[in-house]
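hey so i finally got around to running the thing on that chain from the lab meeting. sorry it took forever, my laptop kept dying and i had to restart like 3 times. anyway pasting the input first so we r on the same page abt which one it is
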Amino acid sequence: MDRWNQKVAIVTGASSGIGAATAKTLVNHGVIVVGIARRLDRLQELTATLGKGKFYPVQCDMRKEEDILKVFQYVEKELGGADILINNAGVFTQMPIIDSPTEEYLKILETNLLGPTICAREFSQSIRKRNVPGHIINISSIAGLFAEAIEIPIGLYGASKYGLRALGTELRHEMMQAKLPIKITNISPGAVRTEIMSRFIMTEDQLKKLNPLEENDIADAVVYALGTPERVEIHEVTVTGKNGAVAVTQE
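ok and heres what got predicted. didnt touch it at all, straight out
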């Protein structure tokens, strides 16, 4: 991680859960973090904990392109540009596709897939302009790997996470073709003890069966991917609880 010391990372969805844990871990490794989320008050609490000059809070709705563009303009103006992008922000639903209004589809796809795509585009253009190494890490989900194992209705969430993995593959191909020094890593966690999981798990028995991960476990996976030598690129990391079940069924 030494080569990222005093470099700049943008972490989306940084107000809680995996995003907040990742922001804290990166700051502890000497990375300057710009945390973005809709809940500015939560981000300001993180600033008080991590310190001004180490963590920069910026309010942003991932469904609004103008908000995302303002974030990258701010980072370029104030910090010279970002070197790391952590696409972590995501929303989850338990509304079945067949019963969901179109607005629910848009909320999932715009937050979980379109927003990260816009972030990746702006980040890549910044890296190209500065000609420096970069790294994009997409926080996906086991739902984007093994949808068959999840029988609880999750709407378009799984489809959006499959799409996020496909986005990473396409970006990697484009980086090779454009000769851009940007690594692409996809991290697919199993159940993680977060606010989203509290709405996902139906019973205490299911929770025990899944043996959930902690938020810091995913932050550590981010550090693992970032800490590899420049010659090494980790394409995919799957993280699950030891001896925990993958399948989630309706009881």
